[in-house]
Amino acid sequence: MNYPLGAKSTEKKSISYGNRGMNLEYDLNETNNYYLIQNIAVVYKKPTPIKIVDVDYPSRKEAIIKKAYFQIPSTTDYNGIYKEKYIDFEAKETMSSTSFPLANIHAHQIKHLERIKEHGGIAFLIVRFTKLNKTFLLTIDSLSYFLNNYDKKSINLDFFEKQGYLIDEKYNPRLDYLSIIEKIYFKGELK
Which CATH number fits domain 20-47+73-186: 3.90.1310.10, 3.40.50.300, 3.40.1350.10, 3.30.428.10? Predict the structure, then answer.
């Protein structure tokens, strides 16, 4: 900050990295809450499976987990039901304005989404390009197509624009991804 007469502030800027990747999660949780209240769908964020090893009990209300570890690799972030169809998806954010690094999604998560589709469920990825403020839905079919036909370490924005579906941000629901699911799976408009 610059003050009048050219004096400059000596205050250091503090940068918080604590909530990186949480904006998309917040928007999806708000959207899913809207779907639930409006009785449109039932979709929840899956808890991360952890095993608690050591707990400090200063009092019953103030138990503190001292040591824990991930029990098994988690599958995906969200699952639920919409119009009698099981849905399952992973949500990711990227700071890149040109591509989504494939290192951000694990092979076991992709395999899980492929299995959901094999069993008649609806499986997809939601990716937000944070700097561009663009959020896309990419079906497991499109993701698998990319993985089988391109030898790259990231998916270019161009692929999302051509093969994915841009999710418009609104007031309610915040990220209406079910309107896209409706078009893709219930009205035959699959790309």
Answer: 3.40.1350.10
